[in-house]
Description:
The chain is of the alpha/beta class. Helix content is 39%, strand content 20%. The chain is globular, with a radius of gyration of 23 Å. Bound molecules: NADP nicotinamide-adenine-dinucleotide phosphate and magnesium ion. NADP nicotinamide-adenine-dinucleotide phosphate binds at residues 178-183, 187, 205, 207-209, 237-239, 242-243, 246, 257-259, 262, 265-266, 286-289, 320, 417, 419, 445, 485, 487, 491-492.
Amino acid sequence: MPAKFKNEPFTDFSKPANKKGMEKALAKVRAELGKDHPLVIGAEEISTSDKLYSYNPAKPSEVIGIFSKANAELAKKAIETAAATFETWKNVPAKKRADVLFKAAALMRKRKFEFSALLTYEVGKSWPEADADTAEAIDFLEFYGREMLRLAAPQPLTKVNGEKNELRYIPLGVGVVVPPWNFALAILVGMTSAAIVAGNTVVLKPSSDSPAIGFKFFELMREAGLPAGVINFVTGSGGSVGDILVAHPKTRFISFTGSKEVGIHINELAAKVQSGQIWLKRVVAEMGGKDAIVIDNETDLDAAVQAAAASAFGFQGQKCSAASRAIVVESVYDKFVEKLAARTKTLSVGSPEIQATYMGPVVNEGSLKKILQYIEIGVKEGGRIVAGGKRAAGEGYFVEPTVIADVDPKATIAQEEIFGPVLAVIKARNFDHALEIANNTEFGLTGGVWTKNKKKQEKAKNEFHAGNFYINRKITGALVGVHPFGGFNMSGTDSKAGGRDYLLLFTQAKAISQKTK
Ligand code: NAP
Ligand code: MG
């Protein structure tokens, strides 16, 4: 049995050896940028003439990698190949499957800086943000490997005389794995490794904003000994390739993490039974958020300001868990806004390659435009900018960390996910009113309260409708095994990634009863 699961520690970049390690990795990875990467279906590497480019959002003239766009025929071939490989992979003992994950974790740990450096280039993560992404990916490999061993062991059943009873968790079949770009490594690794360790085979379609990280992980799995065809690596636009993969009659489940709009679309498409399909597809969909942090008057305001800023602006606010609303009790509202604005103005924006940078760019031009538009709408609907509000200097897609005060709870920027460094501050009459406002969106992913009052804490534990709820701390940074992650309502199916319920989503249980006398 492997040692008890422990979270991968974060890197202390103030240590000269670690700083050097990251600098070396940034140089090594930079020298390898711009390569052409194939699709990989079974053991076959395939190039198409229709290309997809991944760019550095901090320096859009820099190509991170070139990828082939799959067409309908290749998408179908990928599902067929996964279906054929399932016939052998499902019979590989759980321990052997888990060992591939443990081997991959060990390899990734050795090359931690390299993975982090590629995250810095491809999606604009600062050093600590990239390091946390890589650490979480290692955690998922270690955690789901152990989870599979737990599920493969004899399961507790009630004993009856004259029968031997057994419950086995068997895999589902072919899965389509569709991750987002924002935890380009961690979420992609978690979704993929959970599905395959349970005995399924998959078609992995990474986000078009981060295919290079996806390919680097795919190569790592090959090196760790994963047989060809268990993961089929397919790039191309979600809209065209995605629909074919999701609708295919041999697709058994879809594991999606991304926006509400795409999640709804996939859920609808997957619900339609296709000709020749002999099951109802299972959809695991983790979607957006409009996460709130409630600030009570009975609190340490300076600590609350720090936590709100960290939750709102870490990785440029591009976390599904990011605070996009601060709901503040009237009596401390003005003080909070003043302190938050001051704190926000100290945050540096620039190239994430530089160690001291706090915020890098947002992921692409479309995202930059959308964020600036939301800021405009926020002001038009009565909001008051107290920090940031503009595009920041530089060739890349840089946005100033922005705080908009006096936002109405029903305003557009208080209801819709912006997915950028924009925090709406909303005034509440009292703590109860703040909770009411917090719950008044269609989402329910993360949330938190800052209060020293035990009664208010208990009330919020019961009433704050969020899958991941925090008290007196930041509302981002969920750890595998510690904070199983997933949201309510339009935030998704509450899969609780990194928890004991997650692997069950990729299995079905078979009960076997044998008469013994
Ligand atoms: P997105 O635009 O919805 O894209 C997610 C993935 O879906 C991408 O791989 C995309 O591919 C693909 N896709 C698009 N259309 C598709 C279709 N018709 N069929 C199949 N796949 C399709 O989301 P994103 O911009 O990558 O990520 C940001 C969003 O993810 C935010 O809303 C955030 O809150 C959410 N998120 C949620 C969680 C959570 O745990 N709840 C975690 C992280 C992020 P292309 O790139 O090729 O279009
Ligand atoms: Mg990019």
